[in-house]
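Deliverable D4.2, example record:
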Amino acid sequence: MSEGQKKYAILIVDDTTENIDVLAGMLSEEFQTRATVNGEKALQIAAATPQPDLILLDIMMPGLDGYEVCRRLQADEQTRDIPVIFVTALSEVEDEAKGLEIGAVDYITKPISPAIVLARVRTHLALKMARENLKKQNEILRDNIRLREDVERMTHHDLKTPLNAILNIPRVLLEDKNLDKEQVDLLGMVEEAGYRMLDIINSSLDLYKMETGKYRLAPVPVDLIETVNQIHGETKEMMVSKKLALRVLVQGKPKADGDRFVVRGEKMLCYSIFANLLKNAVEASPENETITMAFDDPKRPRIAIHNKGVIPEEIRENFFDKYVTAGKKGGTGLGTYTAKLSTRVLGGDISFESSDAKGTILKISLPPAAPSEARVKSEPVAGQTSVAQRDISSLSILIVDDSPAMRRTISGILKQMGCTRFFGANDGGEALKILDDEEIDFIISDKNMPNVDGFELLRNIRSIPQWANIPFVMVTGDAEMDTVLLAAKTRVSEFIIKPFSADLLKKKIESALAMK
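Output generated by the structure prediction step:
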């Protein structure tokens, strides 16, 4: 044992002092030793601080015998982790089996061999230290898991709330027809940057959930043409540097204004899939070529992305596997892997063809949207207003969120929907005061807020007869199933996961009004 290293403490329990002297004599040079001649005292020493690191225990003793001492040590949470080695004259197999069965780690019969005793003591002390180290590592892992969960909660709420404003405010401002081209382009850049930031946040959190089967899908209608338009802006600079063109075909024809291709999925998962695959195609394509994205058969949605580059043969068999990359400086090998996982989570499939003659075609299939969701929106007849718009324009709407930017974002969307009367509250407590003073027809509330959160606000509202039937839309960055089920149990009218688009908010409001 090196100088300064801890000496392990051994407790010797034997009613014969000569046996104690023999054991102490062979152990004292390497270990600290302490001894007692009865079981009651042994239990007191074992429970005291500092505890012995190991106990050498005789079986045949007056009063409490060794078996009973071992049983009590094992029954006490304070002492159950101290290894016990029986040192006894009882040499029958049944005696040894009984000792091991009640919790002893080893069994040495008398007369003892010093070499064997030392070897057994060293072995079980090493095992005890290994168990303690493993326990400490598990505690560190649990702390890390708690930290990851805390970061995840922070990301869901603290980051996604301002990002929702970044994504929606450009949409609100773009409704102003007086903007010049440069202003429109700048707003588009803000929106693209917001989606890219959100994709990075979601990917870091969601990849683990998808890998472990814990991802909770919340599908809504997603227009892939709109998604690709956003992604194209992000890759435009790289495409210009390689002199590449992007051709988008919808059912065999060049994309036209107003074209839609709606699938059932999640906006950010769809964004992540096509952002990764389009970026991959741009990087792989030779210069001065055209990348084609073809959207076919909305009833069985199929999307093909073609570029003239060729996937190297050495990675074709595991092209969609984790960390697989070839010839790309700084590539992580996560892009196609994430695209595959995301596609499968959405209930779709992904594959590829690659050859020198044809280049590479990535093929994606996704679930179709319902017919009512997939059809092209018809423009309202001049002078007419939809029922939803007419209803909303006359409502008094209360927006409850601790983020002023989020309240302004939602109010901007509501103004576009024709709403002219709305109130804002920082948390549920302020909202309840407004409800006392004003006649409120509709509530849009965040879930996570200081003081009185969204669930407590909803419970209060549902418990008071004059407010009980007010439509209540809850907004949150937390997509866990427990949260969704609790919201349903608390009688929420509609539930929206951040980030959300203006279109989705409109649909949820219309749905809540229809339910009323």
